[in-house]
Amino acid sequence: MGQAFYTPDVDDSFRHWVEREALVALKADAVTWTALPVEASFRRFFRVSTGSGSLVAMQAPTDREDTTQFVRIGELFKRHEIGVPVIHAADTQRGFALMEDLGEDTLERAYARGDSERSLTLALGTIARIQGVQDAQGVIPDYTAERLRMELGIFSEWFLGGLLGIDAPPWYRQMAEHLVNSALEQPKCPMHRDFHCRNLLITPAGALGVVDFQDALHGPVTYDLASLLGDCYHEFEGTEIDAALQSYHRTAQQLDIPGIPDWHQFRRCFDLMVMQRQLKAVGIFARLWLRDGRRSHIVSIAPVLVRLAALSRNYAATSQLARSIQEHWLSAATARIARLVE
Asked: Across all residues in the chain, what is the average pLDDT?
């Protein structure tokens, strides 16, 4: 085995496996390790580099993450020319994978430097390819009503109950059911399910790279659009959202995708899908801190609540959500978070 110039805090079995596979793949005799930022999952990622190139190593706890599904979805998406990394080696029983390095130029960085127009064009094209995936072997599960309800329950359990210490108001269940029904009534297609700026990259070749794809489901046609344009880590101008949605809607009508509603109904479905995602995200951000001791996302709660209130006030079925955020929840959350991060 070659030399590792830096070995992060990983167990020996993972380190030895990665170095063996990386040295073979990169045809090198030494590697260096760099820990990469983590998102909301329990997976850990490392850049493994040599003088001739680099790869990304993943370690996933087998009791919490399904590496077999990661590999299956990755292979399926790659066959449909979606920019997921090539998986060079995997040990699914131990939760190990070694894959192509797509770089560090996330869409979050691209937006920050004013490159949102090109980035959104690439992202919308990738959504179209994902929605066109032919899944003859049933690799991608269905996004069920039960799962949608469970995700909306994360908000009431972890944000309202856990962070604020209050019960969900009586109207929350009815509003949540309204969001679930809107999702279920939409045309169904394959979706990435976490299609936001930290999971999308501009590769050195100028294409769109896609990571964190293992939770792909078959569900509402507006879902990945809601992930992209209702991003919890970046706020788009209203005109940018309108232009991107109208571009997608025109393309969908030209392709004669079954069940695509007219523009006004489509926009309503999109807005309600954004609300569902943002409610779930706020709940997950609270859970990461309260259950897992991770502060990484808690600062995103207040900005997402502000955007959620602005959007939900536009519809009668969600207007009580807007009032509760503006009158009570936002200020209570801000005060609670300030005490937590002192």
From this structure: 92
End-to-end C-alpha distance for the chain, whole angstroms: 46
Token output for 201:
């990259």
User: Which residues of the chain register pLDDT less than 50?
Assistant: 1-6
Instruction: Evaluate whether 320 touches 170 at the Cβ level (below 8 Å).
Output: no
CA distance 179 to 308: 14
Distance (Å, rounded) from C-alpha 215 to C-alpha 193?
Answer: 7
| Pair type for strands 30-35 and 188-191 | unpaired
Report DSSP letters for 16-55, one per residue: HHHHHHHHHHHT-SEEEEEE----SSS-EEEEEEETTEEE
CA–CA separation, 270 vs 74, rounded Å?
27
DSSP string covering 238-277, please?
A: HHHHHHHHHHHHHHHHHTT-TT---HHHHHHHHHHHHHHH
Rounded Cα distance between 186 and 188, Å, is 6
**CA–CA separation, 70 and 139 (whole Å):** 10
Write down the pLDDT at residue 327: 97
DSSP sequence for 93-106: TTTEEEEE---S-B
pLDDT at position 145, please?
A: 97
Which tens digits make up the pLDDT trace of 268-312? 999 999 999 999 999 999 999 999 888 889 999 999 999 999 999
CA distances 231 to 93, 137, 223, Å, are 33, 31, 12
| Residue 29 structure tokens | 């005799």
